[in-house]
Amino acid sequence: MTVKKKTNTREETAPTVGVVSLGCPKALVDSERILTQLRSEGYQLSPSYEGADVVIVNTCGFLDSAKKESLEAIGEAMDANGKVIVTGCMGAEPETIMKAYPKVLAVTGPHQYEAVVSAVHDAAPPIHDPYVDLVPPQGIKLTPRHYAYLKISEGCNNRCTFCIIPKLRGDLVSRPIIQVLAEAERLVKAGVKEILVISQDTSAYGIDMKYQAYPWKNRTIRTKFIDLCRELGELGAWVRLHYVYPYPHVDEVFGLMNEGKVLPYIDIPFQHASPNVLKNMRRPAHQEKTLERIHDWRRMCPDLTIRSTFIVGFPGETDADFEFLLDWMKEAQLDRVGCFKYEAVGGAKANEIQPAVPEEVKEERWHRFMQVQQAISTAKLKAKVGRTLPVIIDELTENGYIGRSSADAPEIDGTVHVTGKGLKQGDIVNVKITKSDEYDLFGKAQSAAIAV
Length: 452
Ligand code: SF4
Known about the structure:
Bound molecules: iron/sulfur cluster
Shape: globular
Number of strands: 20
Radius of gyration: 26 Å
Largest sheet: 5 strands, parallel
Number of helices: 13
Distance between the termini: 57 Å
Structural class: alpha/beta
């Protein structure tokens, strides 16, 4: 007689989830949607609280009696299991829940399916089966494995006259912070060394959610720019901030940059400097004192790289506006700059502003602008010769390696050409800078890969 050796099937080793769904049919549909997603990831449903790895309580907050029932259900699940995620209508009042049960793992509002699923992943990670799962645990990435874009919100509340994004994507909708952080953690676990935070307006993150707070690890964090930066800074990866508008609260992030938690790099799309043009553009957070603020930021964070983009030839831009912009650039001494000639996008309000700037004038202004910026960039890079900078390696070429320092975002900024041996994509090494040109640095690797 042969005895078959028993191997654990995926079903037997899969984490289990208990669910209690209170309230109306809409809440029931929400629960079904969450469970469908979890089942598709291999989770098993548990018939009891006791046997579950985590319990989801989908609450109702319609009447006081429903709230009471919801709180009782949370209490029961806490007593029987202890690992509880709360969602549904009562999740819109996280303070009430946290006050009664400070140890619940996460509180999410109604229809926040992704946030619930992220919280479950955190409490009881899914088992990844490379033979069955079509998608790796960190999702499908179009970037190389060592860096990844982290989208924190969709849409925009601003109405810049040259832009049709709000028409296409609607107003700002932020992703709950626990969902964003769970994704960031997955990325880092999967080998990502650099996270690039993107959105249409990064510093407005969470305004639409009134900075909703959530429990995370052993603390409470808000869906807010500074909390996000602080938490991302704990993950042990490079964190690079894009599309930050200079609202006053942005100043808080420079402390984290000095501590090495967030890269001393900030991408602020100024687009112009002349007050007339900025007014016509209806740019957010534009103010007369931007130059003063730039000087303040550099005082607060001396190693700061400021990147920005500009538009020349915007309708109504006069010679005087353009000269103002050039003078402003010379004073601002921005490190990395992109410049575009204005293009009339169909449906953009700016097209109605008169007079349009002739193409040859746009062309001439663009060249003059780039000349000024090139001189600034050349001088700034020259000042780095002799320094030793950490560099992340992007690729190996016939002549050595190409990498980036904290001052260079992938695709849009310059690079560091590195000589050395035995480096791999994603390694972060100290590089002694020996030479510079208009946009790039050149140097020699000083050490083996260093930990982030
Ligand atoms: S802030 Fe950006 S996305 Fe929003 S309207 Fe202005 S240009 Fe468009």
